[in-house]
């Protein structure tokens, strides 16, 4: 049985569509706009890193060990003589990618599990939610450190592991949504029409849960970027010579670098703060735009 | 109430077991073994085999897990493979500094965060509100360790006001003054990590209760504004604040791992990182169990605190 065609809503004057409404509310949110602009600039910078930075981020220059910022090296050079500005741009690629990919991994695992837990209830629900408890009751940074030790530190393991640990947040969120949507009329109606569980979950419940998922995912991106930074700072994340904002800060564990060469570590830290702030602003904007009453 | 506590403890047992299985598996699947660091690199295969046998590493992982679990049920955490000392002694030596650091930061965060959140809500959309919300956003966006690095750079390197790290200066007598000067920075940094979520949560909770009917009633019958705020609004805003507290316990522990590393604080966090590095299985498992128990107890206390904050909540 094909899904029933939706009758076009009667037009009264020139009403705004839902999307127009959402966009209007989003663009009224000043901080969200600033955040979005900063993010767009950042994304532009890291995509065109090759054109913007004049140096190879991996090339070590023995004449420039720890060089100060100047015309040759805009933000100076690191302890191996690599250009900090170039590494900042290339590192941005990695850090932003880790944020996006690991959030996607969390969604892919968490959303189906949450749907099933909420929809099926009973033993399945208990099993999934107790598993979520195990993950959430334990400091994620320690689990991540152990998991990364298993797989070996690399950008892929960092993405995978941070993603894996994100699932309980999404699963809980979806499950809560499913529980409240399950008894609503449109779901009852679909069931009365003989729709199968999978159809109801994917076509009726999931679309109605998209707003909170989107908001939670936005905040998870910034969370993941912070986790990547901590992990790389501890030396268990993205490994050199590859650059990430986190591992650019790793050098600052040496007191000489920390004390005498702030250009080596400050820029990466500022970049992280700026990105996380912007993403959080955008997340706030999306939340207010999608549902002014939603609380998270 | 007693039945509720007992039931919660019974539910916590499988969660705890789950955590131990998960971490045991992770740890044992990791490449490398404590042997690598214990024996001379030129040792013969037979010698390595003998060491593995001595430590029980030649048995199947599942058997080793159950042996470890059996030990745990007898209250034994085993011996560190790195230093051969009882794990419990190593942990006891580290637990004080971590409790001190985490506890101090918790107090600072709540002493600063709750008034700022309340101020932000009662004077919503004023300069006070924007100021504390800016602080909240910044606190949530700064990586813990970066704040630590900047603090060290400013206060230790440039201003030379505070020590770089550690708990006491080497070669000096431990004293309260030295301890305080060493504690200030890490405690403030760790408090900063909690401040962002706290201010926002308090603000939205208080804003919400200020709109309730009972607040309007209290004002209408002429209750002083201070009293309305503290006896009616804030009291009812406690429940979401307690929820946040329960949820943030694992973050506090996780945050102290990173903060301890930055400030070379001799606590459980640095011990854990060293133990993971040297694949010291009993030590890793010891700390894991301890943290898990602490977090689960914290969650239970949080749930019991709901009853104190809101007498309508009953425990069956």
Report on this model:
The complex is a heterodimer of chains A (296) and B (316). Chain A has a single domain, classed as MetI-like (MetI-like fold, Orthogonal Bundle), CATH 1.10.3720. Chain A contains 13 helices and no strands. Chain A has helices at residues 18-28, 30-47, 49-52, 84-120, 122-136, 140-151, 155-164, 167-181, 185-192, 197-233, 245-248, 255-260, 262-290. In chain A, helix 2 crosses helix 4 (84-120). Chain A is globular, with a radius of gyration of 23 Å. Chain B has twelve helices and no strands. The model of chain B has no long low-confidence stretch (mean pLDDT 85). The chains are: A mainly alpha (296), B mainly alpha (316).
Produce a short descriptive summary.
Chain A has about 300 residues and is mainly alpha-helical. Chain A is built from 13 helices and no strands.
Largest sheet of chain B: none
Which structural class best describes the helix and strand composition of chain A?
A: mainly alpha
What best-fitting shape of chain B do the alpha-carbon axes yield?
globular
Number of helices of chain A: 13
Into how many domains do the coordinates of chain A divide?
A: 1
| Largest inter-chain contact set | A-B, 39 and 45 residues
N-to-C series of helices and strands of chain A: HHHHHHHHHHHHH
Number of helices of chain B: 12
Helix content of chain B: over 70%
Number of strands of chain B: 0
């Amino acid at each position: 049985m094909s899904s029933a065609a939706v009758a076009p809503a009667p037009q009264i004057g020139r009403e705004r569509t839902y999307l127009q409404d959402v966009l209007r509310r989003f663009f009224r949110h000043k901080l969200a706009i600033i955040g979005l602009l900063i993010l767009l600039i950042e994304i532009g910078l890291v995509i065109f890193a090759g054109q913007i930075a004049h140096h190879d981020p991996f090339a070590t220059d023995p004449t420039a060990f720890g060089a100060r910022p100047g015309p040759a090296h805009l933000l100076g050079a690191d302890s191996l003589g690599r250009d900090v500005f170039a590494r900042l741009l290339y590192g941005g690629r990695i850090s932003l990618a880790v944020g996006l990919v690991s959030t996607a991994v969390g969604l892919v695992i968490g959303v189906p599990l949450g749907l099933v837990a909420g929809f099926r209830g009973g033993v399945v629900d208990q099993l999934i939610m107790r598993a979520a408890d195990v993950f959430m009751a334990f400091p994620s940074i320690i689990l991540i450190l152990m998991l990364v030790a298993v797989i070996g530190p690399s950008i892929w393991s960092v993405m995978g592991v941070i993603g894996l640990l994100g699932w309980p947040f999404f699963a809980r969120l979806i499950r809560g949504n499913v529980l409240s949507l399950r008894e609503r009329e449109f779901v009852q109606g679909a069931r009365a029409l003989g729709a199968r569980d999978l159809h109801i979950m994917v076509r009726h419940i999931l679309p109605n849960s998209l707003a909170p998922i989107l908001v939670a995912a936005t905040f998870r991106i910034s969370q993941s970027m912070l986790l990547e930074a901590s992990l790389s700072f501890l030396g268990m994340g993205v490994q050199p010579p590859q650059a990430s904002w986190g591992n650019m800060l790793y050098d600052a564990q040496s007191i000489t670098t920390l004390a005498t060469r702030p250009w080596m570590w400050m820029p990466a830290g500022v970049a992280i703060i700026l990105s996380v702030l912007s993403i959080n602003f955008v997340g706030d904007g999306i939340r207010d735009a999608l549902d002014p009453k939603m609380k998270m | 109430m007693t039945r509720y506590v007992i039931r919660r403890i019974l539910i916590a047992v499988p969660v705890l077991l789950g955590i131990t299985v998960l971490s045991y598996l992770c740890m044992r699947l990791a490449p490398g073994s404590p042997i690598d660091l214990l024996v001379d690199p030129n040792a013969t295969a037979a010698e390595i085999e003998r060491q593995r046998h001595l430590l029980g590493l030649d048995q199947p992982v599942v058997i080793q897990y159950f042996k470890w679990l059996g030990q745990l049920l007898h209250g034994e955490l085993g011996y560190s493979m790195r230093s051969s000392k009882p794990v419990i002694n190593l942990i006891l030596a580290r637990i004080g500094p971590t409790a001190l650091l985490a506890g101090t930061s918790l107090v600072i965060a709540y002493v600063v965060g709750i008034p700022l959140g309340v101020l932000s809500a009662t004077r919503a959309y004023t300069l006070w509100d924007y100021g504390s919300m800016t602080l909240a956003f910044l606190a949530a966006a700064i990586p813990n360790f970066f704040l630590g690095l900047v603090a060290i750079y400013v206060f230790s390197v440039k201003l030379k006001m505070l020590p770089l790290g550690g708990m006491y200066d080497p070669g000096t007598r431990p004293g309260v003054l030295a301890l305080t000067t060493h504690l200030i920075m890490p405690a403030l940094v760790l408090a900063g990590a909690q401040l962002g979520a706290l201010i926002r949560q308090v603000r939205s909770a208080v804003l919400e209760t200020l709109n309730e009917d009972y607040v309007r009633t209290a004002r209408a019958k002429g209750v002083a504004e201070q009293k309305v705020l503290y006896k009616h609004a804030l009291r009812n805003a406690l429940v979401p604040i307690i929820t946040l507290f329960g949820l943030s316990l694992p973050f506090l522990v996780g945050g102290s791992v990173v903060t301890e590393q930055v400030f070379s604080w001799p606590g459980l966090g640095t011990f854990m990182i060293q133990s993971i590095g040297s694949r010291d299985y009993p030590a890793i498992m010891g700390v894991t169990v301890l943290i898990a128990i602490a977090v689960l107890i914290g969650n239970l206390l949080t749930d019991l605190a709901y009853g104190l904050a809101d007498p309508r909540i009953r425990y069956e």
